[in-house]
Write a structure and sequence with these properties.
Blueprint lengths: L1 H16 L31 H17 L5 H15 L1 E7 L10 E4 L15 E10 L3 E6 L2 E6 L7 E7 L2 E7 L5 E5 L2 E8 L2 E7 L5 E4 L6 H6 L3 E2 L14 E9 L4 E9 L4
Parallel strand pairs: 8-13
Antiparallel strand pairs: 1-3, 2-3, 3-4, 4-5, 6-7, 6-14, 8-9, 9-10, 10-11, 12-13, 13-14
């Protein structure tokens, strides 16, 4: 009996030292922290920590530039970012993309992209893109540059300009439309969380963020109107079920040109 009391007396301090560890979880900094497991990832998306970090870095830049009123400085900062990391853009893709360049994925709102049978769904992807030609996209991910063939991997929006000398197809992010044309390059006005910037796209798919004269914005907008598309036997990619044409002002030709624009569906 004395031995039993002695053992209890010796082990009591040891039990006292094994207190349960209490870990304090930091409070969320914003509502965005509730949206996804990984900070920066879009709500309800399939998105990993690497993509979440890249998107957070982009959002931080955008938030800082919104306080700068000089459009030239904004364009320079965004172009430096694009040249190094690319810019986040949307395109159509599939689930197999997670085995390769791993974009952030969301379901497409288009009924045609979500068949009830066993056919593969068309998904909306987001990746950091430096440029897109008709054959490949140059993507940045996790400290590495990837030259990604478009076929079976990515479906950006093909936009076709009907020049007098012949039609040219450019590859743009989903829902982007050219504001005007100059030097056979498309100027696209983009917006991200209230920050407006202009992306210039060349015939061979090179991209560059540039500054434009925003006082001319209404002039270029007034030149855009829906027109009947020229006769063209070319079929749209299967991801794009809607196509229509608009006139876009060509600064060099000093006239509006028909441009074919495509969408996945009417939303």
């Amino acid at each position: 009996m004395r031995l039993t009391y002695l053992l209890i007396f010796i082990t009591l301090p040891l039990w006292a030292q094994n207190k349960p560890r209490i870990q304090v979880i930091p409070n969320p900094q914003s509502l965005e922290d509730f949206d996804h497991e990984f900070k920066g990832c879009p709500e309800n998306s399939e998105c990993d920590q690497v993509m979440g970090h890249m998107l957070s870095r982009w959002k931080l830049l955008v938030s800082k530039l919104k306080d700068i009123t000089d459009p030239n400085k904004n364009a320079q900062a965004l172009e430096l970012f694009r040249a190094k990391y690319g810019i986040p853009v949307e395109f159509y893709t599939n689930q197999k993309s997670q085995l390769g360049f791993k974009p952030a994925l969301n379901s497409s709102p288009c009924k045609e992209h979500n068949p009830k049978d066993q056919k593969e769904k068309v998904l909306k992807g987001i990746a950091f893109v430096k440029s897109i030609s008709n054959e490949k996209a140059v993507i940045w991910r996790d400290q590495a540059q990837i030259e990604l063939p478009l076929k079976d991997n990515m479906a950006p929006q093909p936009v076709k300009v009907y020049y007098d000398a012949g039609a040219v197809t450019y590859q743009l992010p989903l829902n982007d439309q050219p504001l005007f044309i100059k030097g056979r390059e498309l100027y696209i006005l983009r917006e991200d969380e209230g920050l407006y910037y202009t992306l210039k796209v060349s015939e061979n798919g090179d991209w560059k963020v540039v500054s434009i004269d925003m006082t001319q914005l209404s002039k270029w907008e007034d030149k855009r109107s829906e027109v009947t598309c020229p006769k063209d036997p070319e079929k749209s990619p299967p991801e794009f079920n809607i196509q229509f044409c608009k006139t876009v002002w060509d600064v060099d030709a000093k006239k509006a040109l028909p441009v074919k624009i495509r969408q996945g569906c009417l939303i």
